[in-house]
Amino acid sequence: MCGLAGFIDNNRSRSSESLEALSHKMCSTLINRGPDDFGSWVDEKSGIAMSHRRLAIQDTTLAGHQPMVSKSGRYIIVYNGEIYNYKTLREELKKAGYVFRSQSDTEVLLAAIEIWGLSAALDKFVGMFAFALWDKNNHRLYLVRDRLGEKPLYYGIFGNVILFGSELKAFEVHDSFVKSINRDAISLLLRYNYIPAPYSIYDKIYKIKPGTFLEIKVENHKISTTEHTYWAYKNFVMSEGIDNKIYNYKEAKLSIKDALTESIRSQMIADVPLGAFLSGGIDSSLIVSIMQSLSPDPIKTYTIGFDHSEYNEANDAKSIANYLGTDHTELYVTASQALNVIPKIPNIFDEPFADSSQIPTYLISKLASSNVTVSLSGDGGDELFGGYNRYYKGYSAWKNFSRMPYPINYIFSEIICSINPEKWNFLYNHFGKYISDEKNYKNIGDKLYKMADIIKINNPQDMYLSLVSFWNNTEQIVLNSSEPMSTPRDYDNWVENLDDRENMMFLDTISYLPDDILTKVDRSSMAVSLESRTPFLNHSLVELSQRIPIELKIKDGKGKWILRNILNDFIPANFIDKPKTGFGIPIAEWLRGPLKEWAEALIDSSRLKHDGYFNAELVTNMWDKHLNKSRNYGHHLWSILMFQAWLEKNK
Question: What percentage of the chain exceeds 70 in pLDDT?
Fold first, then answer.
């Protein structure tokens, strides 16, 4: 994995030395993404500078050095990612007469573009990538991002200057960058706990959207941009997801198993040590099981645990590792170790990011990076195969209540909310075993309050939005803001004639997955120079997943039914037949305990009024309710705290 940065100064007033020095300064901020090598390329006549930091994975020699110039000299590229099918493409290109100078996938990528053209080459690439490509002949810059959004890429235009890079920190050292905070993006942060593409925390800085590339024309001192979509997941959802289902269970199971195995096989290719994250859940356990079946040697696996039983999966992971015979490493994290990560978060994520599982993700990445350079994960399994509780528990509750008259639902909702969540938790912990077989069901009170919201909703689109939202009244809490349209709020994204649950999974795949899950994994792993790979997100497997009927994904009140059955081919069912835990931390408790002083300093009423971004009265009221346990506002407050911590670092 790597980091890239660069700019075009269309004023064309900088010398080659000035261009190179500034691009070096930008890319030096990304050293964690690529500690092994640095390079830059400039063209004074065009005013362009491109720079690159390398984490060597394939062909670790200097033959893979970037920026790389194509054989004809027409194209120059800086590239972050991996092309998993590069060996196959290499053979195709050799048959076409291309003579390679290295074993790197970068040269294959560049040669493919030169021989086949950008659009045709993108159709052939299997992998995760973000790259900037300069066409010297046509004076055009192409900023390209992979289909699912595994790798990040930002850009911004300030007057006659174009900036681009893997992370925002690279922009902040450029003298044309204007650090103006986007208040509307803060409202998105509070709704989702992340800022969705194409927005960023800064005005005039945008994320390249997954499956697209931006064509930037630089002509006659004028800059124009055109966005092109080369892969649209919705097209497959509308075709494969409706008209081409695999209803035969054995055929469906074998298709998914074979496709996942081939994806894992291709992603196990590396010239550096490789391992895997193992949480003990279905997705990571299946990835590790298949990895071990493909390897003659024990796979290195990594798990972190907490003494807090509700958040600890280390015992399950250890049992699975022992059964499979992996080379397993576990680390039990104390509260103080986890809390020590918090001051690093603003620098790791560059913009406010409030998924609190960012802390254990960073810690497990740090643990793995001590022994390996590449680690495979199970991310993507939930979105593709129905793993989140909202697909079955949340949806089922809404569906059942939607058959009842609204006044009854309203009364039932009021009854739920008449008892505070902490009392619901107490009642469930003491009496739940008599009414439910569910074990380890965290924060039942918060879930009941969420149910109280959705049972008053009369359409699936608003039901889904409610389930994925933390704050609904964002414009009341963020001063002088207007929440922009985003994927979950846009009804046009809802696919007609598709099951509601499949629509929810589709929307999560194009929003929550790239903007939360993959952002969290990329920044956390890159902060410690670890490359994370996600076999579930091979685009052929993603497309195939749409052919699997919802009845084979969600069955008997459980998600990922078909994955469970594939996993049973490797390990006994009792290893995984348990409720979904999730990868989190007891953030609500910590805010009332060891994080209380830190939090109170950041959201002090006078400080909030001075900073001028939030309604101080509303925040204070919420903080008080959280402290006295009348409500659990841990995740709501975390988004504000992450913004305030980021703001403090960026003042």
Answer: 96
